[in-house]
What we know:
The protein has one helix at 31-43, and strands at 2-8, 11-19, 47-54, 57-65. By secondary structure, the chain is α+β, with helices and mostly antiparallel strands.
Amino acid sequence: IDVSVEIMNDHLLLNAVNKIEKDTRHQGGLGIANVTERLNLIYGNHYSLTTKEKEGIYSINLKLNLEKNGL
């Protein structure tokens, strides 16, 4: 797994990339849905979250507006 975190222009940027093993793929997981619900409660529309699965690689990109929430 590769993870990077940086703060740029009052935004926190988090990127994570992970190789997916064939026997660990799950259908209908709740993890991303739960994270999205919590982000909506805390940040409203002041964040972006994208996920992608391609050729056995799963990636997630999260951008949080720190200034909006006084962080």
